[in-house]
Design goal:
Number of domains: 1
Distance between the termini: 17 Å
CATH superfamily: Hotdog Thioesterase
CATH topology: Thiol Ester Dehydrase, Chain A
Strand content: 35-45%
Largest sheet: 6 strands, antiparallel
Helix content: 25-40%
Structural class: alpha+beta
Radius of gyration: 14 Å
CATH architecture: Roll
Number of helices: 3
Strand order of the largest sheet: 1-2-4-5-6-3
Shape: globular
Order of helices and strands: HHEEHEEEE
Number of strands: 6
Length: about 140
């Protein structure tokens, strides 16, 4: 398992291996380490809702997958994995071109629960959404 800073191509392969949905959405891994995980999804008409904006479900899937990767990289010794038990997203603006980039950081890394905060920004650096999720340690 890769646990240090990595290249974009290594991160993308890691995301796609652990989460096949990431491949289906076209998620590109940018970096992954226990302290920070970054990935992005490109705007695509196939991922949009009316008005040509990325669907909220696309953004939530990006945040959930990115946060889950962060939790996975912070698992305590002997743990087998994680599963999302709670997720809260605030949507602040639409993405109608370019990329949505997610950055996740751990807020709490316990033996039974890991809490992760994820921010999604557009290419202009504006905050698109903020997600806080709780992952159960398996």
């Amino acid at each position: 398992m890769l646990r240090g800073m990595t290249t974009t191509s290594e991160s993308t392969v890691f995301f796609h291996q652990l989460m096949p949905l990431a491949r289906a959405l076209g998620v590109e891994g940018l970096e992954h380490a226990p302290e920070v995980v970054r990935s992005r999804v490109a705007w695509s008409e196939s991922l949009c809702t009316s008005g040509g904006v990325l669907h909220g479900g696309t953004l939530m899937a990006l945040a959930d997958g990115n946060g889950a990767m962060c939790a996975f990289l912070n698992l305590p010794e002997g743990a087998k994995g994680t599963t999302t038990i709670e997720s809260k997203t605030n949507f602040l603006r639409a993405v109608s071109e370019g990329h949505a980039t997610a950055t996740s950081r751990p807020l709490h890394t316990g033996r039974r629960v890991i809490v992760v905060e994820t921010e999604i920004h557009d290419d202009a650096g504006k905050l698109v959404a903020k997600t806080t999720q709780t992952q159960a340690v398996l």
